[in-house]
Amino acid sequence: MSAPEDDKPASEPSASDVPELDERSEQTLRNLVRGAVAGAEPEAPDVLSGVQRRIRQRSRGKFYADGWSTARHPPIGTYLLTSVAMLILLLIAYSWFGSLSGEPSPVENQPAPVHIVVPRPAPS
To answer: Which pLDDT score is estimated for 39?
Structure first.
């Protein structure tokens, strides 16, 4: 019967054959592996901007000419100013219409006089 060590293929190193790395070498090796893995993933091409540019060229500026829809990042400052302006307008309208409301005035509900009209007799 053979020993368990003899059953392993010759190409696999045993745990005692692998040299121990110090902390600095291990960190360097990790950085190299991370860099290799990060560089292996291809970056997706930016198809949207190319399509928008081609549509803008073919339509002679009718579509996507404003710059708002083709911007990389939304114009947050413009959205913020617009929302603040709308809030101010709503508060002004609320205060203006709020001052118009008040207590309801009492209404006297009396029935109107009823006049009974007797039909004329038909001519004979």
So the answer is: 61
- Report d(CA 81, CA 79) in Å as an integer: 6
Report yes or no: 55 and 63 within 8 Å, Cβ to Cβ: yes
Q: Which two tokens stand for residue 12?
A: 């696999």
pTM: predicted TM-score of the whole model, two decimal places: 0.34
Residue 31 lies in a domain: no
**Segment among 4-13, 41-50, 87-96 with least mean pLDDT:** 4-13
Q: CA-to-CA distance for 73 and 76, rounded, in angstroms?
A: 8
The answer to the question of residue 40 being in a domain is no
**Model pLDDT, residue 98:** 81
Tell me whether residue 12 is in a domain: no
Are 21 and 39 in contact, with CB atoms under 8 Å apart?
no
The domain in which residue 88 lies consists of 47-97
15 versus 101: which is more confidently predicted? 101
d(CA 93, CA 82): 17
